[in-house]
Amino acid sequence: MKQAAHILLVDDDASLLKLLGMRLESRGFRVTTAESGRQALERLGQVRPDLVLSDLRMDEMDGLALFHEIQRRAPGLPVIILTAHGSIPDAVSATRQGVFSFLTKPVDRDELFAAIDEALSQAPGTGGDGDNDWRAEIITRSPQMERILEQARMVAASDVSVLVTGPSGSGKELLAKAIHRASSRSSHPFVAINCGALPEQLLESELFGHAKGAFTGAISQHQGLFQAADGGTLFLDEIGDMPLPLQVKLLRVIQERQVRPLGSTVSTSIDVRIISATHRDLDRSMSEGDFREDLYYRLNVVNLKLPALKERAEDVPLLAKYLVGQAAERHKPFVKGFSPEALNLLASSAWPGNVRQLVNVVEQCVALTSSPIIPEALVAQALTAEENALPSFNEARASFERSYLIKVLKITEGNVTQAARIAGRNRTDFYKLLARHELEPSAFKAGGEVPMGKAYPLSSS
């Protein structure tokens, strides 16, 4: 049994709740109590227990109904049910549904502790602070994020491929690193590459390697990232931007567990766990023919979807305090934190750039402050500067594409054939571009309502 494991204890009998709580605390457990199923779910939104110990017969919501709701909110969290009305059919039904153990009151002390110890030994991520080293870089108190981290810890124990989805800047690479650290591969390399940041030939060379003379400029042999990550984890960021020809080669490597460098006739066996990530809608990409369905199912064995920062607003003050401490340590040790008004402004902001944008804002504030406490005015200034900041290459390219499409559709009044001819694309490709940017040609006909969107205006010339 790991010390200081946290148990959520649920019973509608206040005296029994107190007595059992004292018994558990005497054994060294941390205990949070709830007098009903509804109250237990409220507690679950505030704390992160390692195990739930619940009475079966309770008003409004019984122990099994509570169990099913816990499984929906926190998959993998073990539940032990106690009842004074125990029967073999009840126990069989409960355990078949996934309840870890079913004990009859008055419960034998040794039997109870044995069941708790067994449940904790099999549950992921239980116990003391040292068990959380794998997720140390992810700062959160959001129940939504905690559920994702529980799932991440569970999937880390297997070797299946994971697809991490979520908006840009939401922390997909941090989650990938956390899964790697929690896995049996943690002592081996974690290698990351952005599939949207390199041209096709260079990306192919980086992933698979090349032999000397494989192409112009290949003056020596180059080991690819699959070989560099052997025994560990390869993180393929922005997998949705990978060109189709490379998707075919990636699928072959995954299926055969062998990689053959460009220009070589020799294949090398590899042992690599793949975690991929994207902010794109891959279902749409598949329907448009831009992403292979067979590769999608190879990569998306488990999908972990990260929320936007505005969906976990309770984390903003926590993250800001952590980040200001990190930035101050590097640049200005006299900076202690944000004023209450500044924290309120941070917490109420929309954060379209998610955690990455928050990092930039905090860095700017620390760089510009001359006082130990960062004032609200400086935060407002940094937020304004971020709104006017130069976009990333991918953001600028997407914005240009959308502006260009709008312009040619305006010129042709929504005539797709003419617009495609001006753009130098065939109709099929042009329709795919329109779908990607959610543009309807009919909106550009006379009297149509042109959809708005973030775009950098093109010259009217």
From TrEMBL:
Residues 6-120 form the Response regulatory domain. Gene3D superfamilies: 1.10.8.60, 3.40.50.2300, Homeodomain-like (1.10.10.60), P-loop containing nucleotide triphosphate hydrolases (3.40.50.300). The keyword ATP-binding applies. The gene is glrR. The modification 4-aspartylphosphate is found at D55. Residues 138-367 form the Sigma-54 factor interaction domain. SMART domains: AAA, REC. It holds the Pfam family AAA_lid_14. This is Two-component system response regulator GlrR. Keywords: ATP-binding, DNA-binding, Nucleotide-binding, Phosphoprotein, Transcription, Transcription regulation. It comes from the Bacteria.
